[in-house]
Write a structure and sequence with these properties.
Length: about 55
């Protein structure tokens, strides 16, 4: 599946976060989390470690 297809699906979601507290776009957070889980992440710590290792 192409990344543009993922963007279409994720961009259809409303971002309910407070705009003053947003550091990263919602798509970036969701896509990075999805990649981490596919790579074997079991929780938030693993997701964070995956993302920090793939900057």
């Amino acid at each position: 599946m192409h990344i543009d297809t993922f963007k279409q699906h994720f961009n259809a979601m409303d971002d309910q976060r407070q705009s003053a507290k947003v550091t990263y776009p919602l798509f970036d957070v969701l896509f990075a989390s999805l990649c981490a889980v596919i790579a074997g992440a079991k929780g938030w710590f693993d997701i964070r470690e995956y993302i920090l290792g793939h900057r």
